[in-house]
């Protein structure tokens, strides 16, 4: 195959596969959320949807939901601003999926004698792109809140704009330590940097070199994704359903998909930055190399599969963590959210940068 | 003891590690995971029941759907005296009386409709009945249906139960 054609095929294939992975996981996550919530609360959860009598633990419910959303009346309230009302779900969904573009799913592979990165785009600005894109998500929520022409969505939109802007600050600052340690903002370099060992025992994962940064980033991510305990923009006990109160049918399902895409992409980002991405502990290119000196040689295909599997397992775990946390922790009060964001997270993030810089300076001497 | 001052137990001050919430959140996650794994392993321990297939046993004196009793020969025991319709606070019983073919019995109900949408399940009709012809001991409440007409129970439906 010629050069440009090969590049085009690879680009399209990568986009198709990674998008399919994300949307597939979104579908599964809606089921995991409902079923997990049920089991945590001593209920049975969805189990009625069946195809030819096969119920499969409610696995067909996402399909039934999608069909229901598709066939419902596409309703626009009289007071709504027609253009912005219809734009808002798109502004919500698009930035949520864009983040996946910079996630490395695995190590470089050689196809037809050429090197192919398992990453849609290895941007040199790397994580800064992610910040730019996730900063856009607030538009969807604010636009939905304002364009609905109703008081509860407006309150939800206002809350979410303040909340997302506040946590954006500590989210960015909490990652500074990672950039300092791995000396790059390029995602592929951060992942390769996490392949080494710390003190000869621990894998040099972000979570071990930046424990405080990890906690701060995780909390900020939950706030950015508007998930419990930070789901004040929805706040159904006060605001009916918050910013998407006036939305129905497929427009609502776009907000819903955006929320779950945030979870999936967020899980992939946490796994990449703090848990070594596709790095399998003690697995080098030729096989396992344990700290004691023991070594197991593996064929390259097995190494590759283990690494992809490690990445998928990490993503699944962090996606599940979103669900798990949601059904464990109650929602914050609004002033508590703001206090946590500005008075606790921000100083801690700054402290983390200072401490990381100090330690790196001392280690260099 | 003087009236007025009562000491209410307040939660104690949180210690420093507790006020960080991190350990407490992990403990909470442990509790929810325990519930989830427990429920996955022991499905029969889950409190909710699969309603239409599995039904809860109601207490013996539960006032449920009505039924009309029959005599030994199969005719309704009701003599269409209108006592139940008079006693009914919701006015949900409609009776049309007719002359009974049996010479020992004066009247019988040609129509005996109970509007289950209006019934308040007070049991007054059962208490008012002089012949023990109406009972509410079926042990189940009105099942849902999709039209109002289907929820007006006729004499045939009530005799069946």
| Gap from first CA to last CA of chain B | 62 Å
**Structural domain tally of chain A:** 1
Choose one word for the global shape of chain A: globular
Low-confidence regions of chain A:
none
- Reading side by side through the largest sheet of chain A, how are the strands ordered? 5-6-7
Number of helices, where a helix is a run of at least 4 consecutive DSSP H or I residues of chain A: 12
Strand order of the largest sheet of chain B: 2-3-5
Q: How many beta-strand elements of chain A?
A: 7
Please give the count of helices of chain B. Answer: 5
Range of helix content of chain B: 10-25%
Q: Major sheet of chain A: size, sense and barrel closure? A: 3 strands, antiparallel
Helical residue percent band of chain A: 55-70%
Structure characterization notes:
The complex is a heterodimer of chains A (365) and B (161). In chain A, helix 2 (61-71) crosses helix 10 (249-274). Chain A is mostly helical. Chain A contains 12 helices and 7 strands. In chain A, the strands form 3 sheets. In chain A, strands 5-6-7 form a 3-stranded antiparallel beta sheet. Chain A is globular and about 70 Å long. Chain B is α+β, with helices and mostly antiparallel strands. Chain B has 2 domains: 16-45; 67-160, 2-Layer Sandwich (Alpha-Beta Plaits), CATH 3.30.70.3270. Chain B contains 5 helices and 5 strands. Chain B has a 3-stranded antiparallel beta sheet with strand order 2-3-5. Chain B has a two-stranded antiparallel ribbon with strand order 1-4. Chain B is elongated, with a radius of gyration of 28 Å. The relative contact order of chain B is 0.17. The model of chain B has no long low-confidence stretch (mean pLDDT 86).
